Amino acid sequence: MNKHVEALRGDLSKISDNTESLIHAARERLSEKVEEVSHDLSTGRESAHDLARIIRAKGIEYGGVVERELQENSFRYLAIIAGVGALLGFLIACKCVSHRPSSK
User: Fold this and answer.
1) Per-residue model confidence (pLDDT) at position 103
2) Sign of dihedral through CA atoms 11, 16, 21, 23?
């Protein structure tokens, strides 16, 4: 029986060594993955900030263009808006008159 206990003790020692090796390898691999993900997040954050800066600059630029256009041609746009409003009013009025019940 003593031989069996020694064999079992040797097997448990091997299992313990293998388990420690696996844990160490898993820890190293996990550490590599954490660094990789951290780098990817950092790169993504920088790209998002760059994109936000570009969008903000374009928005300011186009806002200025629209403002200048409205200031330079304000009467033209006012006439267009009034014409569209009158056309919509006319179409709505015609539709309302055509759906009015007859008074027979």
Assistant:
1) 57
2) positive
